[in-house]
Fold:
Amino acid sequence: MHIPPHDNQNKAIVDIEDAHVPLTYFNIVKLKAGETFDYRLQGYETCVVPATGTVTVEAGGETFADIGNRGADVWDGEPEGVYVPTDTGCRITARTDTETFIAGAKFAETLKPFAVRKTELDLVQYGSDDTKTHRKIKHILGAGHHDRVGRLLVSELFTVGAGGWSGFPSHKHDTDRRDGSGGEMTETRHDECYNFRFKPDYGSGLQMLQRVDNEPGDAYHIMDGSTVLIDKGYHPCCALPGYEMYYFTILGGLSQRSLKQHFQPTHAEQLHTIPGIMDMVAKFK
Structure:
């Protein structure tokens, strides 16, 4: 599902118990310096990530000052965030004008809040210019915070260079299934939500969603500020030549946090042609 760019007026773009992706939550909060935003979500853990600007986050009796260091856009600096536990009140105070993402995943337990500074990111770069798959991933809540989070994975993905594909070879993660009775997970159910940005901001791209291998699927024209919900199927995307693409990525797992992707059989042989892709897979845990 594609949600076109719009002024959400600080109200959830993907609310709790969404009909398409009930395991995830997404809000964009825009504040002027000195303004505040309060929220509390029952049944969902969240992560506050300034897209631009600097904020102070208060949650669970703790204060995390000076979160975020980016200027004009998401390319202008490194991401930072604050993990906010389930059913925990949170106040975001804008130190500067800010656009702030709130990412969430369904999780019943209440853990402890913590900050993720730019020096604590899990970084991955893979692909190649030759295969048109060169991209960089900055995991805010990735493998490095596995023991401190319930079901939520939060990352930022950037195409490297202008144009190219992301999420290829195509994969899906819409079903919990094991290798035989009691065997290892071969695929996990993770709902997913993207918010896209382009550089320059008049750029655009394409999000594919192919629900069944070798059958026609859907395609969405994505623009700066587009939100896409991935509930089922294979879902590569691409940017037009001449434009850089970014997407804020939220994953919420049904039964576990670690993501297990099922690669599309038709294109799986191309896994061996893309440098570093298995390192990328290993970081979504």
Q: What stands out?
A: The chain has one helix and 23 strands. The helical segments are 277-283. The first strand starts at residue 2 and ends at 3. The chain has a mean pLDDT of 93.
